[in-house]
Amino acid sequence: MEVFGFAGYSGSGKTTLIEQLIPLFVAEGLKISLIKHTHHNFAIDQPGKDSYRHRAAGCSEVMVTSQYRWTLVHELRNEPEPSLKEQLARLAPCDLVLVESFKNEAIAKLEVHRTTIDKALLFPQDPNIAAIASDLPLETSLPQFRLNQPKIIAEFILQQTGLKQNG
User: What SUPFAM superfamilies is this protein classified in (predicted)?
Assistant: First the structure.
């Protein structure tokens, strides 16, 4: 599995860009997975549903399965948050794992920057940032892309990960 990350502040457009890139990768015949980190407490089940009730009652893991999809919810219950490496090991085999918002991980990543967010750029402090996608040109020697260039960004990522060779 190849791994490529996306870093940037909330509201910069990471999710929107990734959403545009995924169909381009799939059209290349690649199997794509994604790991997204969040600092928020979240739940994929809802109060009153069986899975929620079982988890609230104390289950460490609850799996919900159907003919369309399955999901596994694992409650940490005071365990430490798993590392990106541990989470990658849990994924089924695929060609490319896109990683959103693991800013401090030592993986190749694209910085997504929007000037209206008015936050400092990450690349000067992060040697793992391979390129930048922004709404305006920036002062850097790194490869730069406009946010509205998903096809060009997809080609860059495929070359960066070795999933597509030059020429």
Answer: P-loop containing nucleoside triphosphate hydrolases
